[in-house]
Amino acid sequence: MTATLEATETAVRLDGVRKTFGSGTRAVTALDGIDLRVAPGEFVCLLGASGCGKTTVLNLIAGLDAPTSGEIELSTTRPAVMFQEAALMPWLTAARNVELPLRLARVGKSQREARTRELLDLVRLGDVGNKRPHELSGGMRQRVALARALASALDGNRGEAASLLLMDEPFSALDAITRDVLQGELLRVWQATGTAVVFVTHDVREAVRLGQRVVLLSSKPGRVVQEWDVDGLTGSDELDAVDRINARLREVISSHAA
Amino acid sequence: MPREVLDDGAAAPGHGPERNGVAEHPQQVADSSAVEAGLDALDTPPSGSGGRRNLVRAVVSPIVAIILTVILWQVLWSLALWPEFQLPAPQDVWAQIWKVVRNGDVWEFLWVSVHRAVIGFLISVAVATPLGLVLAKVPLIRAAFGPLISGLQSLPSVAWVPAAVLWFGLTDGAIYTVVLLGAVPSIASGLVSGIDQIPPILPRVGKVLGAGRLDSARYILLPAALPGYLAGLKQGWAFSWRSLMAAELIATSPQLGFGLGQYLHNGMQLSDMSMVLAGIFLIFLVGVGIELAVFRPLERTVLRARGLTGAV
């Protein structure tokens, strides 16, 4: 059940969320009692090996799927969602893609244009607004997708409630240099907008670099194994955190060998 | 090669300073935006040009092919391998065409046939579009009628002429029936395959961006299915024109007017091969002309806009 929170001290609250696919003897439990809280403006990374249901968690929060049992509450009616693919509409220009959620929300024309320009400037793509997706590089496409996601979130609830950005391995299909630059870009956008972020990844380094908190999920079925506070770590502290989390992740994966 | 010794910690790129609450170093901001601008410039796919050479190739090469065909024809005729009533000279056929152009008859044939084909095609589009949408979106209807529609597509529409004449007599109704039965299945299946080929991520994105069912159809499904739909329309036009010619050729009657099919029919009755070839040439010209003037540019614009440039 997805409900909207009255008070805004949490952006996301998951209580005992279970998700089972299929039924009878062939039923597969993807998530087994997930509890998660994300504060407004907080950056949380969900980390796990493949098959741990991190994408399922994100789909449940995004409302693309319904939990089998348990409760999900959001402070916003419509979170922004970014997928691994940019999934831009190939027949629309970059600016039109960003404008699409505003159009769907029946925002007036002048307001739409102003907001689109603002968001394209935010992701530093102000001068390629009239290019089509196939004329952009992979990294630029992902930035357009980010601007579009932000347009849907911030205007979906008219800026009243705290906003929420859900990201499903958005940089994993990009080359290493572009990924590095976009991670910095995301941190900048996060600071500029103050949105809460739930970021799904299988990359420990990425999780530690970006997140304030890293949540490790186990695989088949997915459960929360451990959490780490990694806010503001630098230098050797950051490397230590990566090593510790990596070790725990390997342990969890090894337990599946038998 | 310049070498730099890195002390530990400083090696990890881009961590730390841009954290929450800690102000970013201005130097670093400028840096990262410069790196990003550089990456954008490097990674952006080059936009292809050289349109002029393409134009020459697209226009000149078919003309050369036509000239070669006519030369071959002239040579075969001059060898006198076949009697004149089987293979007339190119200039006889040209004279025949010139005759109907000069006395103005050609405009009557063209008007009668082309306006029928266009009206028949438009009715087909109006019938096939909702039909295609329902077939694509309602699994039960698709399971029930899908095979029927694809079967109809492979049935030569000329087979409907006798039935249409028995139902409607020698009227325009009979002709439109044949045209519709030819064009509707191919337009509908074009739309169905267009919708089938939409990447499933796009409707999902539509949903998270806040599109309801109607908005999703209008802003996402229909534009995404457009290339397949256009291909169906193109084929539908070809089928309309073909079916119309078959109907006109078989169902001839004074009250049906005098179209290209009747002209062809008369040529056969008079055993005038140059008239028959002139008729075929005119039918071919209309088919190719509409394709080149309407469908090719439309398809090109749509595919170009999506970066699908294999299309000439």
Automatic annotation (TrEMBL), chain A:
Task: Show where the ABC transporter domain sits.
Answer: 12-246
Query: A Pfam family matched by this chain, by name?
Result: ABC_tran
**GO MF entries:** ATP binding; ATP hydrolysis activity
> Which PROSITE patterns does UniProt cross-reference here?
ABC_TRANSPORTER_1, ABC_TRANSPORTER_2
Q: Look up the domain of life of the source.
A: Bacteria
**Keywords carried by this UniProt record:** ATP-binding, Nucleotide-binding, Transport
The name under which this protein is listed is NitT/TauT family transport system ATP-binding protein
Organism listed in the record: Actinokineospora auranticolor
UniProtKB/TrEMBL annotation, chain B:
For the ABC transmembrane type-1 domain, which residue ranges apply?
110-294
List, alphabetically, the CDD domains matched.
TM_PBP2
What's a single GO CC term here?
plasma membrane
Keywords attached to this Swiss-Prot or TrEMBL record, sorted alphabetically, are: Cell membrane, Membrane, Transmembrane, Transmembrane helix, Transport
Q: Which InterPro entries is this protein grouped with? A: MetI-like (IPR000515), MetI-like_sf (IPR035906)
Q: Where are the transmembrane segments?
A: 55-76, 117-136, 148-168, 174-195, 216-233, 273-295
Q: This protein's superkingdom? A: Bacteria
Q: Disordered: where is this region? A: 1-28
Q: Does the keyword Ribonucleoprotein apply?
A: no
UniProt-recorded name of the protein: NitT/TauT family transport system permease protein
